Amino acid sequence: MKPVIVIVSTIISLTTISYTSRSQSTDAVEQAERSNDRKSDDKEVNEEDANFLARVADGRMADLQQGKLASEKSANGLIRDYGKLMMKDQQMLLAQVKLLAATKNVTLPDNMSEGKSDERTDLVKESGKSFDKKFVDIMISEHERDISSFEEAAQSSDRKISQFAEKYLPLLESHLEKIKDIKDQMQ
User: Fold this and answer.
1) Contacts of 61 (CB under 8 A, 6+ apart)
2) Average pLDDT by consecutive 10-residue portion of the chain (187 residues)?
3) Which of 10, 131, 143, 184 could form a disulfide with 126 if both were Cys (CB 3.0 to 4.6 A apart)?
4) Domain limits of the chain?
5) Could you say which of 1.10.3720.10, 2.40.110.10, 1.20.1260.10, 3.30.450.20 is the CATH number of the domain covering 28-186?
């Protein structure tokens, strides 16, 4: 009977370890959100606002990297210039997110999320007009999503979060308008 108990016990332990390792994602944004969830449970931070800041940081890191790629790889001068603009503005915005997060005791990701990293890896593989098209499509999609997120955050009951969102929303809208104009000129 003891060997059966040992075998069953071992199987349960291995299954638990396997499940735990799969459920503990290495995604930097998910890790930051879990940390903020714990702080939220302890009433240290507002979970919704904390997750907004974590996603903003993720987006800024991604746009910064994609802007760098565009400034280096694009054959289109307008896209290279837009890439440089992304590098400058996203660097500034990322610094502002970090400052705000520090005042709110919010954990931010150290790296881009796996999804954004995968998107960047796919973009690196492209060249020429294919790169330009993919970059423009990513920028439009990302900025539309960001604008929606910032509009929602502008309604936050936390005055600093709502002011941050309101302050930088016009910047994101101008980025979207510029990249849409570039797309129109490409066609």
Assistant:
1) 90, 94, 109, 111, 112, 116
2) 51 43 60 65 72 94 95 96 97 97 91 90 93 96 97 95 97 98 93
3) 131
4) 28-186
5) 1.20.1260.10
